[in-house]
Amino acid sequence: MVLQATTMALLLVVFFFTHISMARGDIGTATAYGPPYLPTLCNGNRVDQFPPGNLFVAVNEGLWDNGAACGRRYRLRCLSGRNHPCKTDIIEVQVVNFCPKSPCPSSFLMSKEAFAAISRLPNARLNVEYIEI
């Protein structure tokens, strides 16, 4: 019985910290972008720069930090958007590029795979919460 109570308390603590960890995040926007993804400003034509699952992003000037953003990882979740596009998943993405569009349409240009992980609608513009990890 004591073991069950300890296990339950541990699960509650893990749940609490998993969900509270986004509470201090920043707010931005996200859109999807598709291939070709190479070359990038971070690692040129290296195919091995992309993280597993292709969960990567290009970032706008505000996040780019003169290239220091390369390799940074963010925990990101969808907050809202037109026609209720948000899924409930929280994902982790890695910065591989500076936004290739001018002006940049959002804080994060997400790979198709990363975008599909948090949005039901492939062409939506999302309001997102993010935190560097």
From TrEMBL:
PANTHER family: EG45-LIKE DOMAIN CONTAINING PROTEIN, EXPANSIN-LIKE EG45 DOMAIN-CONTAINING PROTEIN. Residues 28-133 form the Expansin-like EG45 domain. SMART domains: DPBB_1. Keywords: Signal. The keyword Nuclease does not apply. It comes from the Eukaryota. This is EG45-like domain containing protein. The gene is LOC111454241. Residues 1-25 form the signal peptide. Pfam families: DPBB_1 (PF03330). InterPro entries: Expansin/allergen_DPBB_dom (IPR007112), RlpA-like_DPBB (IPR009009), RlpA-like_sf (IPR036908).
